Please model this.
Amino acid sequence: MQKAVIIYSTTDGQTKRICEFLKQKLEAKINIDLFSIEEIDRAELNLYDKIIIGASIRYGKHSPKLYKFIEKNIEVLKANFTAFFTVNVVARKEGKNTPDTNPYMKKFLQLTNWQPNLLGVFAGKIDYPSYKFTDKQMIRLIMFITKGPTDTSGTFEFTNWKSVEEFSDRLLQN
Model:
């Protein structure tokens, strides 16, 4: 049986939720582990046939820890089957929800020396009640500018779970 690892970098937990969903979909056919980007140093990446990384965006950027991890492990990543997906609210919009059209995916690929075998883009979630005051106001402003939801009493999930399931199917095909 193949052995795979899913590594996630999350800000508010939606990327972790997506990774847990993927793990649940894949574990019947693949021996799979799940680690946060902070925990992954405990794992030996060479033991895995597939390395899947999911990362969220906050204020237009992926976590610096993600870039450090990729730089540190670039040789292992290049030697194995790898997949990468980004989770961001911009992907809620048609025309910004594919690897070819999502600005954060494009930027990520430009900033790294890594070309994963499989790419994915998923819309995230806005959970205003859970944000600190400053984040709540900044995200509200961004949503106002981009014609998104601005009701700070609400939670708005944009993740298309069917797209996540299709991504899991593509992972099984490779």
Remarks:
- The longest strand covers residues 81-88.
- The mean pLDDT is 93.
